[in-house]
């Protein structure tokens, strides 16, 4: 970009390119902070660099209203790298703070206090980066062909765990950068050493040479977020604040108001470039719902500090920021730029009001939609109640059937037990019958053997009987013959001899 103040920027893209280059230089300058030796001079120089970075991020956020989504994505990537560097710096300072809690040396205590102020400025810059991503995320999601107001549903950030996990893995997504930056800020604010550190800076900010009005303003901005976090120790903050609160203070609110007022008077009575510069770089409220095209910021208000930005850029590149090289007129130019910036902020706020009006209309439509959904939900609830009643009735019936089945099962178990006992007795009886059957079979076998023997004897007796019958028949035949002979003899002799006598005579034996 041109370093001559006479060269005028002709487009928002060129102006954004200048801011991006300055962001790159700032990020490069901040990348080596962690390895430097911690002294009051280095801490003061780094704090001024952080204030310059805060101013650049704010101006980049203002320029996003007139840029396309691609340019916004480019700016967001540079701001994301800056936020990552700032997060590392804040974590490094918090670790140093944890290691050096009890310090007796006054000089070393001043260095640690300066390191605390540097940590507060780092967290404040991280908050400014978060506001930038919150402003740029709806613009980056806007379609290039769409020139009208954006739908609130299209610009709304879905904060469900699934969507948040998805956005965290999207390297080029502005919404992903927003989640990362906000998580980093929340993690730093939830560190146990942050609560007492904020209380200490809020009370003793102007009593250290490097502590000025802007530190208390940064602490108040950070407290707006920290007080809503669960892991932020509010009790530790209040106890630390009460311990270091000077005696005679009536209340915490009055003390804060008086100290901020005194700091403002001191800065107005003894102006210096550093105080004017840091006061000019105070973060203003960025619009988190910039959902409509804002009015283009006049580019004439940006040219007055180009030479000063060039000097700062050269000083940062040389790693030696010389405050003495900045004249009072240049500081006045920055004040004039701050006034113009407030005017541009007024235009942005007017556009924001218009956007909120449009969003209100959209919210009315959404409310009507949710009313319809509520009626549908009521009908669904009544249907579910009926289903629940029927389910309860079915459950009661099922429970009664289950009890009946249990009783039936108990009866069947008793019957089964009785049948098992009967089966055991029948088995014993069967065994007895088997033994009886075997003995009877043995007896039958013996009887059959005896029967066969008797049959043989009977056959033998029958044969003998037949033989005896034949002998008897022969004897009868012989008797008849003898009887006939005897009768003949008797007839012939006239003697009557009985057949028996004749038989005896014939058979004397």
UniProtKB/TrEMBL annotation:
Coiled coil (UniProt feature): 392-485
Domain of life: Eukaryota
Keyword line: Coiled coil
Protein name: Protein CIP2A
Species name: Mesocestoides corti
């Amino acid at each position: 970009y041109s370093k001559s103040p006479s060269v005028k920027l002709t487009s928002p893209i060129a102006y954004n390119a200048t801011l991006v280059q300055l962001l790159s230089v700032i990020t490069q300058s901040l990348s080596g902070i962690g390895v430097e030796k911690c002294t009051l001079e280095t801490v003061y120089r780094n704090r001024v660099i952080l204030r310059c970075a805060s101013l650049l991020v704010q101006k980049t956020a203002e320029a996003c209203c007139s840029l396309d989504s691609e340019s916004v994505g480019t700016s967001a990537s540079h701001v994301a790298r800056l936020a990552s560097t700032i997060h590392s710096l804040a974590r490094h300072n918090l670790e140093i703070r944890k290691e050096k809690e009890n310090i007796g040396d006054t000089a070393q205590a001043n260095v640690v206090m300066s390191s605390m102020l540097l940590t507060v400025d780092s967290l404040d810059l991280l908050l400014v980066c978060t506001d930038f991503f919150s402003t740029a995320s709806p613009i980056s999601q806007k379609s290039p062909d769409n020139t009208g107001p954006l739908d609130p549903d299209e610009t709304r950030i879905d904060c469900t765990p699934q969507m948040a996990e998805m956005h965290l893995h999207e390297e080029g997504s502005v919404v992903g950068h927003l989640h990362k930056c906000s998580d980093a800020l929340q993690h730093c604010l939830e560190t146990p050493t942050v609560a007492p550190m904020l209380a200490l800076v809020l009370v003793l900010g102007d009593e250290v040479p490097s502590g000025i009005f802007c530190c208390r303003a940064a602490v108040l901005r950070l407290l707006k977020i920290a007080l809503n976090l669960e892991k932020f120790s509010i009790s530790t903050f209040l106890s630390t604040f009460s311990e270091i609160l000077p005696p005679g203070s009536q209340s915490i609110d009055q003390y804060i108001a008086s100290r901020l007022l005194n700091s403002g008077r001191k800065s107005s009575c003894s102006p210096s470039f550093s105080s004017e510069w840091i006061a000019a770089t105070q973060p203003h409220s960025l619009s988190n719902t910039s959902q409509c095209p804002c009015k283009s910021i006049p580019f004439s208000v940006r040219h007055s500090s180009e030479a000063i930005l060039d000097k700062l850029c050269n000083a940062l590149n040389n790693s030696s920021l010389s405050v003495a090289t900045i004249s009072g007129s240049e500081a006045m130019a920055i004040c004039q730029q701050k006034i113009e910036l407030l005017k541009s902020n007024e235009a942005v706020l007017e556009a924001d009001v218009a956007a909120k009006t449009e969003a209100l209309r959209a919210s009315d439509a959404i409310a009507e939609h949710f009313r319809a959904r509520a009626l549908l939900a009521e009908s669904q609830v009544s249907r579910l109640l009926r289903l629940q009643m029927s389910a309860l009735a079915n459950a009661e019936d099922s429970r009664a059937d289950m009890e009946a089945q249990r009783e039936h099962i108990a009866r069947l178990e008793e019957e089964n037990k009785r049948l098992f006992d009967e089966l055991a007795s029948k088995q014993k009886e069967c065994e007895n019958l088997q033994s009886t059957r075997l003995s009877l079979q043995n007896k039958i076998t013996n009887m059959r053997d005896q029967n066969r023997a008797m049959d043989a004897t009977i056959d033998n007796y029958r044969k003998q009987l037949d033989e005896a019958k034949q002998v008897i028949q022969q004897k009868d035949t012989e008797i008849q013959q003898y009887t006939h002979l005897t009768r003949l003899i008797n007839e012939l002799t006239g003697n009557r001899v009985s057949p028996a006598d004749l038989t005896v005579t014939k058979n004397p034996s």
